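In the design runs reported in the main text, the only information available to the sequence generator was the tokenized backbone. The following block is the verbatim input for one such run; it is reproduced so that readers can re-run the procedure and compare outputs position by position.
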């Protein structure tokens, strides 16, 4: 594991406590505030006792420290190589993230090192400057909860306009496209970003109702045989879905996943990628989709 957000939180918390002690701020109120703001709710019960009892040998019982300089947590070479690899992903530019100090670092991997199957080749133009500009406008509107005026091409390539209250952005691995999910006064919208010609913050007099999405959700149950690390791979693969896992026996688990029906085809493709390690338990309608997909592949001599 290259980065661990749980343990990194503790490292950063203790580093800030040591810096406070060096600066002379040793009262319990200040230290507890650092812990609560940088670690977890229950951390107050573990961090300070471990420090004061000298279990971690960083701070003495009298709240002094043998350290003379504020601690720093420099990145390791492995972490830098990972970040360099991520920085090469063209989608990074959409979020305005800058990576400094990596000019002389070799990436851990590049796009030439792996092949993605079952993915369309007409993905969004992530490196197009106008696309990046529109993406940032939409992202800002999501953060500020502002309505958007959007001009886009419909399926007949006719330019139309609409006013939308954005709710979230979704990325489809299968399509390699971003979609904007939003609501209007009468309808919900799912808009492919590549079809948007231009957009801007809506400043008109018409009030756009900030209502909840009327999503058509469904649920499926998978049985996972935990061989070749299948359980961990599956949970990571569906990390952004609402899900629940339960153990059946020593080697198998049931995973219940909630998903939008608009992603049904993509879910079929994802599940098939795990091969015999994953079985669809239900519902029967989804099992039939899997069977139909396998028959289609067999008829084309793909399996």
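Verbatim output:
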């Amino acid at each position: 594991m290259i980065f661990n957000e749980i343990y990194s939180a503790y490292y950063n918390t203790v580093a800030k406590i040591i810096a406070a002690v060096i600066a002379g701020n040793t009262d319990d109120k200040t230290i507890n505030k650092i812990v609560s703001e940088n670690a977890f709710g229950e951390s107050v019960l573990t961090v300070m006792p471990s420090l004061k009892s000298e279990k971690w040998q960083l701070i003495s019982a009298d709240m002094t420290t043998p350290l003379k300089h504020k601690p720093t947590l420099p990145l390791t070479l492995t972490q830098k190589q990972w970040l360099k690899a991520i920085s090469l992903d063209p989608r990074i530019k959409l979020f305005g993230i800058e990576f400094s100090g990596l000019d002389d670092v070799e990436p851990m991997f590049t796009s030439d090192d792996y092949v993605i199957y079952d993915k369309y080749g007409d993905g969004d133009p992530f490196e197009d400057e106008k696309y990046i500009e529109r993406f940032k406008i939409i992202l800002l509107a999501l953060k500020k909860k502002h309505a958007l005026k959007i001009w886009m091409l419909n399926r007949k390539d006719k330019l139309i306009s609409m006013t939308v209250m954005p709710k979230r952005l979704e990325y489809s691995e299968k399509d390699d496209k971003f979609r904007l999910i939003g609501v209007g006064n009468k309808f919900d919208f799912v808009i492919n970003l590549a079809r948007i010609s231009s957009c801007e913050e809506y400043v008109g007099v018409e009030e756009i109702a900030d209502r909840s999405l009327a999503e058509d959700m469904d649920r499926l149950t998978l049985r996972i045989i935990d061989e070749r690390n299948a359980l961990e791979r599956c949970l990571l693969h569906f990390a952004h879905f609402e899900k629940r896992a339960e153990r059946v026996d020593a080697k198998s688990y049931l995973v219940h996943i909630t998903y939008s029906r608009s992603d049904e085809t993509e879910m079929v493709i994802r599940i098939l990628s795990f091969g015999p390690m994953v079985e669809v338990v239900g519902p029967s309608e989804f099992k039939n989709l899997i069977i139909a997909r396998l028959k289609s592949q067999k008829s084309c001599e793909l399996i």
